[in-house]
């Protein structure tokens, strides 16, 4: 095995461990979601909604780049962990960003050919929400755990959130798209109707 | 929500369930892999090896289509199940193919715009190994569970396979690429060295 293939091999065995990183929402009624399966569904949802997104924004959107951002966006959590979106403050956010940036440089930069540079650039684009594609992926990334908490019956008791709190978390991100906002409204309505989310005035 | 968005919503909640389909290989030392996380890693591996694959075969390979095949190739298992690659015979294969085809028609065909037709065509391309892209994805799909059985320490005891049996399962598929064959050889060697795979003559 030549040196370049050894580096690719090591990256493959590194990324394999994204299956071990647990998220805070469920994948099924009886277990937490892994970041790997979260990333898969993000890519599927972007693919499914791509034509709608283009229709809404009135210009082409690079689905290939969107899907790659979905696949890659949380790979650094293999070493940096997955903090809950419900428990972040300013200093925690900055420390998380620094830790993830360090993992990205260490794990991505040395990959052969143009691969390392591509991964670093895509991660940066996603983190900054620098393009319409990145902002839509960030919207789907926010919608997805709400969908799973609803579908699996997990609800929001573990984070003590009611519908108003969920709106505050979701709307700034899903608001990038009328389609994502409509899908969030549907999830919210279903969750309230099933008694998974408190919507008391 | 308009009728088209309702169809897309229902497809999203349908695909969400790929997290529930368990494979026969482990994801971590303590649990089986879901088909969703398997599909994610397949896409990552194809992306990682894409430049090598192009170098080997001497012509461009459509990575976007490869990644879409990875994401989609097992979605039908949500309803058709995931039979082990180790326990198949001719009649079982044919019945599996029919069941999966039926799920694909029922779940994909009615999707709005060009989406339904795209999903059906990509699934067909993958199943038939009709293109270099499809044959490479099929190679990665075969390599991946061997890698996970090795990395997680699961080994092959549950399927009663030794190294010769593993070669018979792997080589026809990974043989499509020198890179995939080299990666398989590395997995095999590591597994034998760790006592996970018997290589007695």
Short recap of the structure:
Two copies of one chain form a homodimer. The first copy, chain A, contains nine helices and two strands. By secondary structure, chain A is mainly alpha-helical.
What does this structure look like?
- The structure is a homodimer of 201-residue chains.
- Chain A is mainly alpha-helical and 201 residues long.
- Chain A has a single domain (3-193), classed as Hypothetical protein af1432, CATH 1.10.3210.10.
- Helix content of chain A is 65%, strand content 5%.
- The first copy, chain A, has nine helices and two strands.
- A two-stranded antiparallel ribbon of chain A has the order 1-2.
- The longest helix of chain A has 23 residues, at 35-57.
- The first copy, chain A, is globular.
- Chains A and B meet through helix 1, strand 2, helix 2, helix 3 and helix 7 of A and helix 1, strand 2, helix 2, helix 3 and helix 7 of B.
